[in-house]
Design brief:
Elements lengths: L1 E7 L2 E5 L9 E7 L3 H11 L6 H4 L4 H4 E4 L2 E10 L7 E10 L2 E6 L4 H11 L8 H35 L7 H4 L1 H36 L6 H66 L15 H23 L3
Parallel strand pairs: 3-7
Antiparallel strand pairs: 1-2, 1-3, 4-5, 5-6, 6-7
Helix pairs in contact: 4-5, 5-7, 5-8, 7-8, 8-9
Amino acid sequence: MIVGYSCIESKLRVVPVDPGALGSLVWLDLLSPSDEEEAQLEAGLGVDLPTREEMAEIEQTSRLYAQGGGLFMTALIPANSELDAPIMAPVTFVLVGQRLVTIRYHSPHAFELFTQRATAGDLPCETAASTMVALLEVMIDRLADVLERVGRDVEAISRGIFAKQGRLRPVERDLRATLEAIGRKGDMLSDVRDSLGTLDRLAVFFGQRLRHDMMTEDLQDRLKDLSVDIKGLADHSAFAIQKVTFLLDATLGLISIEQNTIFKILSVVSVVFLPPTLVASIYGMNFADMPELSLTFGYPLALVLMLLSAGLPYLYFKRKGWL
């Protein structure tokens, strides 16, 4: 699908797309384009657009390059980040003359936010370069929102881990669910960090290539601010990843402590019941000459011995604080 936008009275407006006559189109958004649509647009623009396989390449020269009079820039942008199961996929930005072309095979929420604000006239979109900078700014804002939400979730997990639990049993603490939550937050932070890294390199490449061409002083300042914001978010994500690692180690430590507590209780129970078992085993032997067997109070005596042999170790362990 191809959606075309023109800037009319400082607002983006959706207009029909004719690949043979692009007219005043400023932005062409390609969402999962078919081979036919891509071929028609390539003929209208006079450049070769990257395929989905080419967009997925990780080499720097495959993501940022100039070819045939156009600039090709690819960055990883997450989608579905609200569900803690983001879809990380590349988005390619192509600047050809006075037109911006975006190619994507998923739907990051930043695109929806950008079109809402741009069609309302809240973002500058007079040229392809200004449209791209504005789109990058919205993407960075979106990543900042994701980092803030993940940070709040990590703080909530931290409070749950280190809150006073009283004498809860291991099952009641549900540390397995905590581990799963920490893992999801760690994956999310890793994805955001990867996205910020690709956007940082894209912003640097974009600024260097256009500084002496169509770049105005205002766009230069906005790109500098964008780079500063990206670096700040990258530092914040690094700190958050360190905290997630700390929480992971703390949770594993708590699991180890609770497992040791279980084994300690089992060991104490074994020691407590070992003497009564010994007494019962002695008087369970079938020897003919056992004096206690003929006593009237032999059975109660055996029971008392078993109770004492179990109670005394229990009281001793209790006094030592092992229980």
